[in-house]
Design goal:
Largest sheet: 7 strands, parallel
Distance between the termini: 41 Å
Strand order of the largest sheet: 3-2-1-4-5-6-7
Shape: globular
Helix content: 40-55%
Structural class: alpha/beta
Strand content: 5-15%
Number of strands: 7
């Protein structure tokens, strides 16, 4: 992927990894569009980074996803990079009364939304790159976030297939595989003490400059390369 002079859509680009990518892509002289549910948060980012284009969009809603695509085709038909970054994570137990509803929300946002957006935006003649943000938890699950882990395992598998499905269209497919980072994913304070988003972003940008399409960082590198024995060891440590 060329890292400059792109027009990029980043879902969930106003916070966490999405915001880190937004900042870094701006530094590389790209035009960045971000979307999210919270208008106030989008405005905060736009105030700090005036070049950022914002669009309020609830990706859990099919109509909003279609509206987003239509808006892009009408106003930014030269968009060439889609970053499927938006995701939610719930720490929950199977016995929780709202377990199914939370699971449904996670599957809709983490699985159905990126599938739908991929199917839509692959129709753009200008599209050259799709970046899917998965997780080290796609390889070794943490039972406290069981559905989240399963959604990321799905997206990982889908990404591998997508790389082959889009060869005929010359669309490059990149997978970013972060470990736990210091973000508010899952709730404030849960991931304090983990590596900074900026460190992850600098690492994956260097890997993209080297032409890599599977981008790891920290513990996600070992998980992505683990055999069954190592996976079992990791699982037992993570789920005592």
């Amino acid at each position: 992927m060329k890292l400059t002079n792109n027009k990029i859509l980043i879902t969930g680009g106003a916070s966490g990894i999405g915001l880190g990518l937004t900042k870094r892509f701006i530094q590389e002289n790209n035009t960045v569009i971000i979307c999210g549910r919270r208008e106030a948060t989008l405005k905060e980012v736009a105030q700090k980074f005036p070049s950022v284009i914002t669009k309020v969009c609830d990706l859990s809603m099919e109509a909003d996803r279609i509206a987003l695509y239509n808006w892009v085709t009408e106003n930014h038909g030269d968009l060439n990079v889609l970053v499927n970054n938006a995701g939610i994570q719930n720490w929950m137990d199977l016995s929780d009364s709202d377990f199914y509803q939370k699971a449904n929300n996670e599957i809709t946002t983490n699985v159905l939304a990126p599938i739908h957006l991929t199917a839509l935006f692959a129709n753009l003649k200008s599209l050259s790159t799709i970046i899917n943000v998965t997780s080290g938890l796609a390889f070794i699950p943490l039972s406290k976030v069981s559905v989240y882990c399963a959604t990321k395992a799905f997206l990982r598998s889908f990404t591998l297939s997508l790389r082959h499905l889009l060869k005929s269209k010359n669309i490059e497919v990149i997978e970013m595989i972060p470990p736990a980072l210091n973000t508010d994913l899952g709730g404030k304070g849960i991931h304090n003490g983990h590596p900074a988003v900026s460190d992850f972003v600098e690492s994956v940008f260097q890997q993209m400059k080297e032409g890599k399409t599977e981008l790891t960082f920290g513990t996600s590198e070992a998980r992505a390369k683990a055999n069954n024995e190592v996976i079992a060891e990791y699982f037992n440590k993570m789920n005592p």
